[in-house]
Amino acid sequence: MSTPQPSPGGGEREVVSARGPLRLALIAILTSLTAVVTIYLRIPIPATQGYFNLGDILVMFSGFALGPTVGLIAGGVGSGIADLVGFPLFAPMTTVIKGFEGFLCGALAVRRSRWRMHAVGALAGAWIVTGYFAVEVYLFGVGAALVELPFNVLQGVSGLVVAPLLVERVRRAYPRVERLAGAFPERVGGAALRLGAGAALVALLLAGGTYAMQVLTPLEFGSEPPLTAQVGVQYEYAFSPNFPAEAVLSTNASWLTMDDANATLVGTPTIPGSYWVELSLSWKGKTAEQNFTIIVQPES
């Protein structure tokens, strides 16, 4: 009986035949890594309730290394999960913006040179900067959006610089990654059509998601007020609304004033007693109120 001989290119066919399991495994791994890296280093930006992170490195890497489908899912879902852990306000928009970032990198630069990846990374970085800026202008105003702008630029730069280098290191250490990318049914030749349809879908989701954030998220105070104070000791309450709301203060405490820029009540009481405070917020048709009493104790 003759021994069956391995057919030429069997390794390639093995990769293609395992396409489904490999795709699921790689999507799960890269989605998890994107979420972990995004969460690991966070610098909060109070003006927009957002934060600086390094997750764009993994978003771009996913697209560059394994194509638009993996980039779309790993970038969008992984980044969205990270936002849900502590910063849920931005989760819907992050899923759309970062998902399209990964898709863009995969559609235009999968299996391409490092310099092609750098160039496409710059385009993807410009997309995330523009996307977040537009959303933040609508939600928080131009001033707050400008505060976060340089952080978003830095995030995009970190991705376009580091991700291509990381892809090259992975290719050298694991050459089979080229065949894994090639096994997925994605070809750069159809990128123009996919990008056109994708851009239209993203614009629709971005507008719908932003509106949903405004409609579904209630206007809220971010903290509870201190209810006791002491004569001669400064009282301070940062009420931290979750949107850039207009605040109105009513009180019989002549010593208490409102710092609008920092959303803070501040003052130093001079006479013991009970003082009522009514604090109201309004933003784009939403309202919220806090009514409380401050008990001022005599000097100790």
In CATH, the architecture of the largest domain is Orthogonal Bundle
Reported for the largest beta sheet, the result is: 4 strands, mixed
The chain-level mean pLDDT equals 84
Can you list the strand order of the major beta sheet?
A: 3-9-8-5
CATH topology of the largest domain: Arp2/3 complex 21 kDa subunit ARPC3
The number of helices is 9
Strand content: 15-25%
Low-confidence stretches: 6-10, 14-18
Which of globular, elongated, flat, extended, rod-shaped describes the shape?
elongated
* Domain module tally: 2
Number of strands: 9
Would you list the SSEs in sequence order as H and E?
A: HHEEHHHHHHHEEEEEEE
Structural class: alpha+beta
What's the N-to-C terminus distance?
Answer: 102 Å
Helix content: 55-70%
Q: Quaternary arrangement of the chains shown?
A: single chain
Under CATH at level 1, the class of the largest domain stands as: Mainly Alpha
